[in-house]
Design a protein that fits this description.
This protein is an alpha/beta fold and about 600 residues long. The chain has a domain at about 370-600: DHBP synthase (Alpha-Beta Complex), CATH 3.90.870. The chain is built from 20 helices and 23 strands. The chain has a 9-stranded mixed β-sheet with strand order 13-23-22-14-15-21-16-20-17, sandwiched between helices. A 5-stranded mixed β-sheet has the order 3-2-1-4-5, with helices on both faces. The chain has a 5-stranded mixed β-sheet with strand order 8-7-6-11-12, sandwiched between helices. The longest helix is centred in the middle third of the chain and has 29 residues, at about 265-290.
Length: about 600
């Protein structure tokens, strides 16, 4: 039984393939099109999934789409009518795409895939819930899904048991925790649907000075975990922006222009909305726990990528165990839709896997040693070949210990927004300058952005205040014995920690625990680094530069390596270093030139 799942048209479109209930392949379209957060029909991602499964269109049994287009269209029409005539410009911009494409998903699927078989359309939050519960390690669990908006729902909760899901409650548009967070993302000068990570990273630099104003004027948090937004301050239901003039008046002036210097206001706004978001999620979790009586919780939806809130939920309870879908946003909706078809629609039995069914989230394309060598030779790239894998790992560990920054391209690409050790840029976390160097001279991004640590799973409690696994880099916890002084951005220079390059300015880190069962090669690299240095931790950031998706092919990895101040590139058993190019053009930008080019601080 071959089931294809598809999500598209908003952001992070994706495709996946499930064969007899097993997740075989999943990927976002952006990794192929090279358009970050690509919302278009996932033609190339789908082609990859078909190839990975060895399928032709005739082999597909069911195609599942991640929401109900007509129900979403109903919500748009009702919203525009209720705000008329304010929403006319937005209405005129949205309607052509809806009338030409978004309403005709069945025809589009038939045309794109040459498929005339059965199509299924679960609701958006059903897809999120399915992506959260069905791959989880739990036989039964409560689920909580929170995002911007699906058809009407912005939040849902319920219980999964065996092969069934039951949604027990919802909050509807325009009352949305995800859109509240996105409104502050917009107001602080970042891009909606991609800059929320920046807002979360900026929050520890500020103080929660605006929490009372947010609670008094913008959101009413109820005792039962529900909430309502005061829509006088927002324009997102009908406009081309997120916030209006009343929002600007409330917070002392207009939104920050993108790429201009950050001020204390932006830092304090980020901290304040982060606090309110966490409080709202904790209220929801307590209510869901009280209503369902479950001890396990599964999370999905874009808000579930707020790893700071996840860490707090885990520390403060009330659930004993929390599992988060690594592709929690819209990309994961493709997977959830396919799983809904297999379990809910077809009624197939489910047996929970104690290690979960995501296979480490390594579900994308891989490249053989022969394919990598073909690229290196065709482009005449100088390289070293290591026939002995242990020797290669020892050499890379040596480079990392010598403060070199290494591009690491191995195995199958990750599904979801996080690089988990197969499409990663790696560095030594003990160096104080690594954080700034990698941000500015390699990633070309703002200096305040934190980096995540990868750590051997068995050592996590030695370095972090965490007593459980975090394989998908979706939990934030305290760094042991970390001390930070100062205020604002100056705190970056005053981090006292054994691993300062992965210690954020509030003494926390977004942790990835690495396990031999899911990624044996990356695990062995960490082992080699630990043997050489006594430190079982590496800086792990995604293999890309600002504004581009994570690299997907050897050619893209090599291009990224050459354009930046990365010191080495490892693809399969092949090592390329900048020292191999003494007479050729170098990655020529100085830190000052990069800062000027990208408007960075």
């Amino acid at each position: 039984m071959n089931i294809v799942g598809i999500s598209c048209w908003y952001h992070d479109s994706a495709a996946c393939l499930i064969q007899d209930g097993r997740i075989v392949a999943a990927a976002q379209e952006e990794r192929f099109s090279r358009q970050k957060h690509d919302p278009n029909f996932p033609t190339q991602a789908l082609a990859y999934c078909m190839e990975e499964g060895g399928l032709t269109p005739e082999d597909i049994d069911i195609v599942a789409f991640y929401d109900k287009p007509f129900l979403k269209f109903e919500r748009l029409l009702e919203t525009y009518l209720s705000y008329a005539p304010k929403g006319l410009p937005s209405f005129m911009k949205a309607m052509p795409l809806w009338l030409k494409k978004k309403l005709w998903i069945p025809d589009l699927i038939s045309r794109e895939i040459d498929f005339e078989g059965q199509q299924l359309y679960p609701e958006h939050h059903e897809s999120h819930a399915a992506s959260a519960f069905y791959p989880s390690p739990f036989d039964r669990a409560a689920f909580l899904t929170t995002d911007g908006v699906g058809e009407w729902a912005t939040t849902s909760y319920g219980v999964g048991s065996g092969n069934r899901l039951q949604i027990q409650g919802e909050i509807h548009f325009p009352h949305s925790l995800g859109l509240l967070y996105s409104a502050f993302t917009y107001f602080t000068g970042f891009k909606v649907n991609s800059g929320e990570y920046k807002l979360m990273g900026l929050a520890p630099y500020g103080e929660p000075r605006y929490v009372d104003q947010i609670r008094e004027h913008l959101i009413d948090l109820k005792e039962d975990g529900s909430f309502r937004l005061n829509m006088e301050y927002f324009t997102f239901p009908y406009g081309l922006t997120m916030t209006g003039s009343k929002f600007a008046e409330l917070f002392g002036g207009p939104r920050r222009d993108p790429e201009t210097p950050l001020t204390r206001r932006e830092m304090d706004l980020a901290r304040s909305v982060q606090v309110v978001t966490e409080d709202a999620l904790m209220g929801m979790a307590r209510h869901v726990h009280a209503v369902t009586g479950e001890t396990n919780l599964c999370l999905a939806g874009g808000v579930a990528l707020n790893c700071v809130a996840n860490g707090r939920m885990l520390r403060e309870g009330p659930f004993e165990h929390v599992w988060i879908q690594p592709a929690a946003g819209d990309a994961g909706g493709a997977l959830g839709a396919a799983l809904m078809a297999w379990y809910d629609y077809l009624g197939n039995p489910r047996e929970a896997n104690p290690a979960d069914d995501m296979r480490g989230s390594y579900l994308g394309p891989s490249f053989s040693e022969a394919e990598i060598l073909e690229f290196l030779e065709s482009d005449q790239v100088p390289h070293e070949h290591y026939a002995d894998e242990d020797a290669m790992l020892a050499r890379v560990a040596e480079l990392l210990a010598d403060q070199k920054v290494v591009g690491w391209f191995q195995g199958r690409m990750e599904f979801g927004p996080r690089a988990l050790g197969n499409r990663s840029i790696l560095a030594d976390p003990r160096g104080r300058e690594v954080q700034r160097t990698v941000n500015l001279k390699i990633k070309f991004r703002e200096s305040f952005r934190p980096f995540a640590p990868s750590i051997l799973a068995e050592h996590v409690n030695e370095y972090f205040e965490l007593d459980r696994e975090s394989p998908y880099m979706l939990l934030v916890s305290g760094v042991r014995d970390a001390h930070i002084e100062g205020e604002g951005l100056e705190r970056l220079q005053k981090i006292d920690s054994a691993i300062p390059s992965v210690t954020h300015v509030d003494g926390s880190a977004r942790i990835q625990t690495v396990h031999e069962r899911t990624n044996p090669l990356y695990y062995r690299l960490l082992k080699a680094f630990h043997t050489r240095t006594g430190c079982p931790v590496l800086v792990n950031t995604s293999f890309n530069v600002r504004g581009e998706p994570i690299v997907g092919t050897p050619e893209q990895a090599y291009t990224c390596f050459r354009r930046t101040h990365m010191d080495a590139l490892v693809m399969g058993p092949y090592l390329v270093t900048k020292s191999m190019f003494p007479d050729s053009e170098e990655a020529v930008f100085s830190a000052e030139e990069i800062a000027a080019e990208y408007g960075l601080d």
